[in-house]
Design goal:
By secondary structure, the protein is an alpha/beta fold. It has helices spanning 9-26, 41-52, 80-87, 109-122, 159-165, 184-188, 203-211, 244-262; strands at 2-6, 31-34, 62-65, 67-69, 99-100, 128-131, 153-156, 178-181, 192-197, 229-234. The chain has one domain (2-262): Rossmann fold (3-Layer(aba) Sandwich). The protein is built from 8 helices and 10 strands. The structure holds 2-phosphoglycolic acid.
Amino acid sequence: MQIVILENAEAVATHGANVIIQKIKQKPDAVLGLATGSTPLALYRKLIEAKRSGDVSFLRSRSFNLDEYLGLPGDHPQSYRYFMQENLFNHIDIEPGNTHVPPGNAANPLKACEEYDELIETTGGIDLQLLGIGRNGHIGFNEPSSGLTSRTRVKTLTPATIEDNARFFGADEFQPHLSITMGIGTIMDSRKIILLATGDSKADAIRATVEGPLSASCPASALQMHKKAVLIIDEAAAAHLEHKEFYKHIERENQKLLQSLKQ
Ligand code: PGA
């Protein structure tokens, strides 16, 4: 696991956006795995800026989102499809038919889960997966105890996640307790993964991800087994890492090596 520790949330968004932009430049029809939540918002704004300035085009790229609430149609303002339209897709040149979010209103959700994994596979697999992380270490809606090799499936949200997300729902509004989420195995099949985390509320989850045991108790710890997983985190999210200074040292050495190879 590569650990990139940056000064603040702004630097995290810039770094994460650059990884995605470089991938699209190198492979214009790249398959992106995308995430919702507060953390990727600033990154999405940077992708929109890059498209507007002509630096990058998403015309040929394809995307698969991690998860969706079960029971919400895509035009529901709290659905993740709606979130993606509002915060990214409507502002870039990606073909609408090339964007995929699990169908929250599927007549047969179990079948829809299988079809989602099949579609990822027939599209060529995910080149670059973007992740956030929950305070409890979840990735997508893979809550603690999720199978480390699980595939896309229906999952029940923990009370902590429901509480974290309640801020998006009105007091009397239906808030789903179920979701469709890519499994940890599905996520791990991605060729490269970047996980972004900012703020001190994520510091324990980041510590468990990096320095804890590989365990279903912290689903993000599965990334320890990935060949190309990069954590891009700010100082606040890195605050509980025991070996923080060593990770920074490794990154400085990596940068030096890359510079020397360029010369
Ligand atoms: P957040 O959510 O970015 O809103 O903190 C991350 C997550 O729950 O995966």
